[in-house]
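User: Predict the structure for this protein chain, please.
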Amino acid sequence: MSARFQEIDWRPTPMGDISLRRRRDPASGEDVYEVKLGDEFLMSSLFTAGEIALTRLGLGELPAGQGGLDVVVGGLGLGYTARAALDDPRVGTLTVIDALGEVIEWHRRGLVPLGAGLAGDPRCRLVRGDFFALAADPGGLDPEAPGRRFHAVLLDVDHSPRHVLHPRHAALYTPGGLRALAALLHPGGVFALWSNDPLDADFSAVLGAVFARSAAHVVDFDNPLQGGRATNTVYVATTEGGR
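Assistant: Here is the predicted structure, written as structure tokens:
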């Protein structure tokens, strides 16, 4: 196989065939890691600004002096959201939930650049599970500790609340689904969501009806593939209490 392109791993999964690829970017000469599900690109190491902003904007709503934060990341991917969380010294525990054991395995085997650092951090636990089913379960997001609450939940799985990877995910973005998730947060806890779509006023209204405070942030970044700039949207919502 060409040194400029390598398919590192390919697996059939219940959600479709998933593959991890590495290619050499001709402009920068750097390696670019990409994940595809079927024919659809899920993520690329070229575009990480939104994933990192998800963590920084979400955790930024919590008090600066508050330590020992218990944080959940829904969706492991290439690990940029989780890495940004571990880089925050306030984070005491990080639970990363991904439906695909293959993705978790890539990290544990060091097949992706951030994998060894995440898998080897004692604060970080990589959990195979269905985030959406767990968020709807009264037992909550940690099967080992039913009823456990968290200071922040950061979600990066679907393309947006309107463009979901599986139809069963859609229930989370309804008032009932968001109320169930809010019940898993401490008072003043934060739910933050990454979206690849422009700001959705209807979804913002649903967030505002469920949470005490909410806001939508547009994240602007370079797009080296198409030229010019591109944007993601990060929604941040906070429960009553806290500060």
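The chain has a mean pLDDT of 93.
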